[in-house]
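A reminder from the course coordinator: this example appears on the midterm review sheet, so study it carefully.

Given structure:
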């Protein structure tokens, strides 16, 4: 049976479409995209009324933690997938800091098997750069690619050894996959809980200086000319790092970067009251850093938006701030938080959609993120005008660790399709 999505406002940056279009889906593929009213109702077709909705390619998040294997009490591939679909995401890349670490074919195979059996979206594994995330010896990067990994990262921990990172970048060139770096000099952040600044001083907490990020970003960029590898800077948080990436791009170096919504909407002020839901790594920075990140989004230095979805159980967060786990859930709040940047005229709505759809797929070499004829029908529909208050208790994620409870936002996911099949449908409008 065919599916006709009609009367919606389509935004497809890759194909430069922004207006009233109807889409016809057949056997999981886009069969036709035509101006509103040109596609007549097809006999025996299912009709999706998109009146008042924005229709886009399915969102793509290249940085999530689904905790399986090893920490299923926080999240599983199934619950993480349900959370992703509810947030409009049809494709996600899962980081390797599981237990065991995804540093070999057997773990990659397990993730892909679990995804096939329990997930309703596209799950893409990221392989570890080093064995056990210890930073001491490279993993078998070739084997990981053959098994299905689309990139390499030790996320959660940086690759501190410069020689090992240099070799990793050389292999990344050979395999044409990016190295994704958690940029942090551990000697400068050891024992830290939040950004080093006036707030950390007032709270009596050890801080994590921006220099820890800036130095590592500078080192990794410096390795690119000779290695030719592809560097992707994860969850950029420092204004200084944004400028380093900007200058590297001007030189034509193969570097890209991502920003998480919490780093363009929150500052270290959110940690007051010892709010552990605002504890994350890299930490929330200053007003100045936030402004420079927003400028990086505006001028294109920052390529994509990625949530760094990091679920934690209550027992991980309801402890002293210094002992609490880093991270927040982010998949189900990404759209409304991104729309705040549209409201502030930092980026246009079309640019926001581009950063959530086509650009992540382009960077990772995936044939997704567009609504062109013949492409896979991964599609998101949302109401950009519906206003509501964020309520973490309603999240599909197994964990509810969010600093955004009670925030007034706009932008409601209505319908998410993967391969032309509905994986999320909003039945209740708040």
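Designed residues:
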């Amino acid at each position: 049976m065919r599916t006709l999505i009609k009367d919606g406002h389509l935004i497809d940056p890759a194909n430069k479409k922004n207006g009233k279009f109807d889409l016809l889906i057949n056997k999981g593929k886009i069969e036709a995209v035509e101006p509103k009213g040109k596609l007549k109702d097809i006999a025996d077709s299912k009709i999706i009324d998109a009146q008042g909705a924005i229709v886009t390619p399915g969102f793509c998040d290249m940085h999530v933690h689904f905790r399986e294997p090893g920490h299923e009490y926080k999240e599983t591939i199934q619950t993480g997938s349900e959370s992703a679909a509810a947030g409009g995401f049809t494709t996600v890349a899962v980081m390797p800091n599981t237990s065991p670490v995804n540093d070999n074919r057997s773990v990659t195979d397990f993730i892909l098997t679990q995804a096939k059996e329990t997930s309703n979206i596209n799950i893409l594994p990221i392989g570890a750069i080093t064995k056990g995330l210890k930073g001491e010896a490279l993993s078998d990067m070739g084997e990981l690619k053959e098994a299905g990994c689309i990139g390499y990262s030790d996320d959660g921990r940086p690759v501190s050894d410069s020689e090992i990172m240099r070799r990793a970048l050389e292999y990344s060139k050979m395999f044409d996959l990016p190295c994704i770096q958690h940029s942090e000099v551990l000697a400068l952040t050891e024992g830290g809980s939040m950004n080093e600044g006036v707030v950390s001083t007032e709270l009596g907490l050890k801080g994590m200086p921006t220099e820890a990020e800036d130095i590592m970003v500078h080192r990794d960029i410096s390795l690119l000319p000779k290695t030719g590898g592809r560097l992707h800077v994860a969850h950029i948080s420092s204004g200084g790092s944004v400028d380093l990436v900007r200058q590297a791009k001007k030189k034509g170096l193969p570097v890209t970067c991502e920003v998480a919504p919490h780093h363009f909407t929150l500052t270290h002020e959110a940690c007051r009251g010892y709010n552990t839901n605002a504890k994350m790594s890299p930490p929330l920075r200053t007003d100045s850093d936030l402004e420079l990140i927003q400028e990086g989004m505006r001028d294109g230095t920052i390529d994509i938006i990625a949530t760094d979805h990091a679920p934690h159980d209550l027992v991980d967060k309801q402890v002293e701030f210094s002992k609490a786990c880093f991270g927040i859930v982010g998949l189900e709040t990404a759209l409304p938080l991104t729309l705040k940047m549209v409201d502030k005229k930092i980026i246009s709505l079309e640019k926001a959609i581009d950063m959530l759809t086509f650009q992540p797929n382009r960077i990772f070499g995936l044939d997704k993120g567009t609504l062109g004829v013949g492409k896979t029908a991964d599609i998101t529909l949302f109401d950009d005008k519906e206003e509501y208050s964020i309520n973490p208790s309603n999240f599909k994620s197994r964990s509810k660790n969010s600093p955004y409870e009670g925030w007034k936002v706009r932008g409601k996911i209505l319908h998410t399709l993967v391969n032309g099949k509905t994986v999320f449908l909003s039945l209740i409008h708040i």
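Residues 256 and 318 are 35 Å apart (CA to CA). The two ends are 32 Å apart (CA to CA).
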